[in-house]
Amino acid sequence: MFSAAEAAGLVMATLEGHPGAADPADVVGGALGKIVRALPERLAVPLPEPARAAAPHPQLDRLLAASSSARLLELSYRSGDHLSQMVVEPWAVVLRHSRWYLLCWSRSRDAQRVLRVDRVEDAATLPETFTPPVGLDALRAVEEHFSQGWRYAVEVVVEAPPEWVRRWVPRSLALLEELPGHRTRMVASTEDPDWYARQLAQIPVDFTVVGDEVRAALAELGRRLGGTART
């Protein structure tokens, strides 16, 4: 029986060495999927789309082991030129789009955090244990986390119910709230209003944007596309 760290290492090695490993129709990809599904739910490693695999990281085994045993971690984490120290509850380690993330609760910040594993410079396992969240969907939590906490707030009202909007809007783009009249409110934030406007332009029904930055970017995108259509 593999430990969580051994299984994750096997996943990485296979993804790096076999081009069809992320394809469930491939023989190796199918076998790899069985290994992933056999891991405990909060340690599951979602297979990425066919792409380059995540590079191994010296702290990954320790993070996985602490998550598996529900032990606190003391981390040294680098963001740009800043190195911070924090004590976290390591809820899960997630592989998403060829990059490893640690989903955790920071006791130092009293907040949920999604940390890039490649920015963890040191990790020390502490003797204290914690109780992980019940029914945690780690991949969903990570993706929803990515839609929040950026510079510009975004609110969009879509003229369609949430079950339709989920087909067009990934969880990493916005949180969805049901509104009366079969409508949906998208709540998010972005660092790049122009990029966000391009994502909204793919929604195939009417919507209204609340917030000056994204609305202005969407208007500019419309003017540019209208000018292209006239040439």
Main features:
alpha+beta, SH3 type barrels, Alpha-Beta Plaits, 4-stranded antiparallel β-sheet, 9 strands, 31% strand
Task: Characterise this structure.
This protein folds into two domains: 142 residues, SH3 type barrels, CATH 2.30.30.100; 84 residues, Alpha-Beta Plaits (2-Layer Sandwich). The longest helix has 19 residues. Helix 1 packs antiparallel against helix 2, helix 1 packs across helix 3 and helix 6 packs across helix 7. It is built from seven helices and nine strands; from the N terminus they run αααβββββαβαββαβα. The chain has a five-stranded antiparallel sheet with strand order 4-3-2-1-5. It has a four-stranded antiparallel sheet with strand order 7-8-6-9, covered by helices on one side. It is α+β, with helices and mostly antiparallel strands and 231 residues long. About 2% of the residues have low confidence. InterPro entries: CBASS_pafABC_assoc_protein, WYL_dom. It comes from Nocardioides hankookensis. This is Helix-turn-helix transcriptional regulator. Pfam families: WYL (PF13280).
**What is the second-level CATH architecture of the largest domain?**
Roll
User: What is the rounded Rg?
Assistant: 20 Å
Give the tally of structural domains.
2
Biggest pleated sheet: 5 strands, antiparallel
Number of contiguous helices: 7
Helix content: 25-40%
Poorly predicted regions are 48-52
Question: What's the overall geometry?
Answer: elongated
| Strand content bin | 25-35%
- Quaternary class: single chain
Q: What is the mean pLDDT?
A: 82
Strand order of the largest sheet: 4-3-2-1-5
**CATH domain fold name of the largest domain:** SH3 type barrels
